[in-house]
Amino acid sequence: LSSFLGFGVGKEEEILGLIKKRLVDYNIIGGSTTDDGRLFSSYEFFNNRVLKNSIVAIAIYTRRKVAINGKLELKKTNIELEITKSSSDGRIIEEAEKMPALDALVSKLGLTQSSFKSLEELYRTTFYYPLVSAENKEFSTTIGAIYGKKLVIGHNLKCNKVVILSASGKEILETPKMLQKIPSSKLTIIFACETGLETLGHKIYEQKK
What is the distance between the alpha carbons of residues 151 and 22, in angstroms, rounded to a whole number? Predict the structure, then answer.
């Protein structure tokens, strides 16, 4: 869990890294679950039990062909952000462009904090502007939380400069259509981004029609 307050964004890359060392002959797909976006706790389901801050895993052995498909509704922008100060564990951006990280992000996006009714509204807007390393392809991440003027990210920061990606509601709405191409006879495991769920809202149930 996040070392900032002892809860929040998980350290999935560390956990999956340890599992990978033990299960070197397996293909591993990992995902995260969380609350309603406040990131105070995570939760998992196992049969009829609801767990908190836990790991639930399933192992599948099959002789059938395995196919992995996905859709990324993001586009790269020309907006870069230089990270000038971060926490020791690399999961909190404290300053960017030599100013408080939140101020730098809002400025780069051409927004103003006063245009948002609440910090939560501003935070949910960041869902549509994830960050990707400008120096390598080792990580891409959404902003997991905003604490004061600091940005908590979903992965360990491994670079000094990031590029801001963007996603439109229209592109996100098109993403679930790929599920219509999956034959009903196939075993399907689906991972969905919180941004897509946030955008679709109650209409997510209409996509199967």
Answer: 33
The Cα–Cα gap between 133 and 131 comes to 7
At residue 207, does pLDDT exceed 60? no
d(CA 201, CA 69): 23
Q: Which helix (H) or strand (E) holds 20?
A: helix 12-22
Distance in angstroms (rounded) separating the CA atoms of residues 158 and 59? 31
The whole model's pTM is what?
Answer: 0.71
Pair 173, 96: CB distance under 8 Å = no
What does DSSP say about strands 131-133 and 161-166: parallel, antiparallel, or unpaired? antiparallel
b vs e for 21-58, b when ≥16 Cβ sit within 10 Å of the residue's Cβ? eeeeeeeeeeeeebeeeebeebeeeeeeeeeeeeeeee
Backbone angles phi, psi at 50, to 5 degrees: -110, 120
Model pLDDT for residues 53-81, shown as the tens digit of each residue: 778 888 888 887 777 776 666 788 889 99
pLDDT (tens digit, 9 = 90+) per residue, 118-142? 877 888 788 888 888 877 665 667 7
